[in-house]
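ok here's the first one, seq then struct tokens
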Amino acid sequence: MEQLPSDHCGHLRLCVVYSAGVQGYHSPLLGRNMNENNSIETSKTKIANSPICVGSEEDLKKLRKTTATVHGREVVVFYHDGRFYALDCRCYHAGGPLHLGEIEDINGQPCIICPWHKYRITLATGEGLYQSINPREPSLSPKWQSKGAKQRTHKVTVDSGNVYVTLSDLADKMDSDYYAENYKKIKNYPQKK
């Protein structure tokens, strides 16, 4: 793998805010081009899972949520109660747009509520939550339970006033991968002119 310049300090210092229609970016710092998957292209290889800047910390705190494309994958970044979170943008259940959902605290955990079917997903771990009643317990009031991790979460870091997202390891499959991949195919489908 090709090494980055020594003045690079080991961090990817690109800040590309993605908006509709932006395809590729030339980095004056590195002298390389960003490809359509928002990966840095070098003459020999790509840096496949480097952190990608999704905006300034100040702007994202004001927005509270935004979408970005990180190495070809659509993610949503939330700022809630002093912390940043990143998840796949499409709900694991039916592909609902999580960036249009509202955040609700459930048992002390911030959760995004999918606007399509009201599925609750923890922002920190991607667990799907549901309410259940145990008929063997004296209290018949519903309690929140976990289905386990269903929504892929991604690492968020803040450096020099910018917010970066690094994709999680995609080797272990998660339910949200289905919609992340299918919406990418639809998004890249050639349009008739």
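and now the second one, same deal
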Amino acid sequence: MSEVNNNNKNNYANTDASSKKSKQNKKRKNKSPQLQPGDPNYKTPTQLRNARKRRKTKTTKATTTSSSTNFNNVISNNNNDPSLKYLSNPKIAPTVRNAIRFFRDKSCAPMGENHDTYFPVTVGPKIGWRHIARLAIQRRKKKTIQQGGGSDSSTNTKKKPKSKTRIGLFVPGSHELLPVPDCPVHHRRINELIKVLEEECNDLNVPIFDNDDDTTDDFGLRYVAVAVERSTQKQQLVLVWKEPDEIEDKNKNKPLNTLIKRLVKLSNATAKATDRNSSPSTENHNQKLIRLHSIWVHYNNSWKHSNSIFDRTGRWETKFVHDDDDNDIDADPLRVPLYFPPQVFRQANLDGFSKIIVNIREWLNEQLLLPSSRKPTTTTTTLGHCLELYGGVGTIGLNLIDLFDSIESSDENPFNEKCFHAAANEITTIDDGSGRQQPIIKSKRDSITYITKSASDVVVDNYSSLQKARVVIVDPPRKGLDPPVIDALCRDYETSDNNEHHQQQALIYVSCGFDAFRRDYEALVEKSGKWTLDRAEGHILFPGSDAIETVAYFTRTK
């Protein structure tokens, strides 16, 4: 083998030498005489330099135009999808502009001043950011909106059209389906699985339950939900199934089991091909490639006109989990393990939400440097007790445990608490936001607690937790804070402790509904007079949609 390599090296050396000589001869042969002043086409050094600049500008402009054209083509190919309306420039969305205008007025900033000084807005990647999607499914001959506009042209043919299963989004205000086979904001693993799922449903003739069409099956597949585990790129699939009526034959659920077996077989085939370190696409261009983390079935037997994808009373079944995985997919915004079974809320853009957590940590660290934040008998930089309302599985709170003596998180979803404790038990270090890992002592675990209650109940039943909290974190749904929470936050706490440290309180409000935030701001600041806005920032977590995530930092004296 070494001889062959040496011979090859000699051959390469000879080839390079001869090639070099021929190039030099060619260069001498083609070299034109240098132009002198007064000759036609003579250019001064400055003129030559300007000509080079113009050529470079022209090339850059052509490349930029081409890139812009490709991006616009992505949008035009999905021009009926309402979630892509502002994808080319997310900051022009009406809600974003309203938020900028609102904080400009509150900060009394002069007209024309850059909003980064009073309300900076962060926009992350525009493509492939969505790691979770809940989609409708239909099988119809008519009223299916096609990409690029218009309805299915097959309905105009003389031959009776064959119905086809499609997966996508409902057009706002209707039950007309917009297929999204290659949605640019979806993670590519979502698009891959949706494509395979459509094909398998058509091949196996899986019954489809249509909420709005009495001519279709009265049982069958109703919705699908796909989530991607960031660390492994595997897909968590939920099949939302409408069961037959009790009086009917339960064997009608067999197509569901057949579909699941088929998907598992495809996933295992992909896994084996990957384990062999080969590219499955080179073996069979038609091979369907999916890597499943798990398959769940949620039985939603609610009224057909109900718009809820998951029914609170519906049962769940885990049908398949890959051998190397747990039931719940995990994510780690700042290397804190978080668990997300399909029954809990998960941010669709965890990468973007991680930036929010980093900014919250930065603001809290600033508070630690204030003299009023230090305990009177020590210089230890901790912020005492933290109460988290609408906490989910602890996405925010668990990433802040090193900054507090104790954290009490809460949420009303009964599936959250198990995920919270599973994550808390695994935390040994935490990222301080700069990439450095800070160790967490074991005794800290006892001070991290969770309450399965609504925020309204927590502020009443656990009022002492709110009263002693140095920091309160709220991350409510789009409707904003519940009235009892507003009332509790604006109350005089009647504490007998006159210690300056205990008298200070901060509120960190993470809002996904700007109209509700504006209403809550007026109640907290303008009506009660208790709270003062310290800082606010915007994060566009859903580029293309008319939405903004607002993070506001308030302070008050108890």
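notes on #2: The chain has two domains: 132-327, 338-557. The mean pLDDT is 83.
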